[in-house]
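Quick one from the shared queue. A colleague (R.T.) flagged Pentapeptide repeat-containing protein as missing a structural entry in our internal table.

Convert sequence to structure tokens.
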Amino acid sequence: MIKIQKPKIPAGLTSINLEEIDDHYVYRSLISDCIISEAEFDKLHFDQVVFKNVTFINVTIEKMDLVDVVFEKCDLSNLDIKEGIFHRVEFIESKLIGSDFTEATFGNVLFKDSILNLSSFGYAKLTQVRFDNCILRQADFYETKLNKVEYIKCDINEANFANTSLNGVDLSSCTFEQLTTRIEDLYGCLVTPEQAIGFSRLMGLKIVD
């Protein structure tokens, strides 16, 4: 199992309202039990921040930078976070349906017990990232760089891995009926015998009993 560094969260965080901040730098704060809607932020930096039970509606955050941040039971569906930077970040029991992480950079990030259907990681860079018991149906990993990335007991049905190397990626505990990928990108991917039969169709093989 890949070692993922946990966020460094100190005790005694200060409760704040994100919509009332004047600075682009949010430090040692707790944002909880609120709805953030119809908002646009530019170049926000979060350092040692916990989001708990927060819902984002029609929110765009240009080039967001997060270090040591936890999202717990949050709804970030359709959140636009293109080109964001995520370092030591956790998403726990959260919804990220349709969230856009295009060209984002992830390092030491955990997605656990979360729903990421239709989310986009196109052209993103993922290093030491774990998806644990997540639903990733129709998620888009087009031309994504995966380095030490784990998918553990995830539903990845109809996910798109086109132009993304799966060398060293273990999909054996995941469930799926169909994936979009290329034959050459499957080299070194770890799968079960049953999954291998499904992938053989990509190569035009016909299984004979």
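The domain at 14-203 is CATH 2.160.20.80 (Pectate Lyase C-like).
Strands lie at 14-15, 25-42, 45-62, 65-72, 85-92, 105-112, 125-132, 145-152.
Added to the table.
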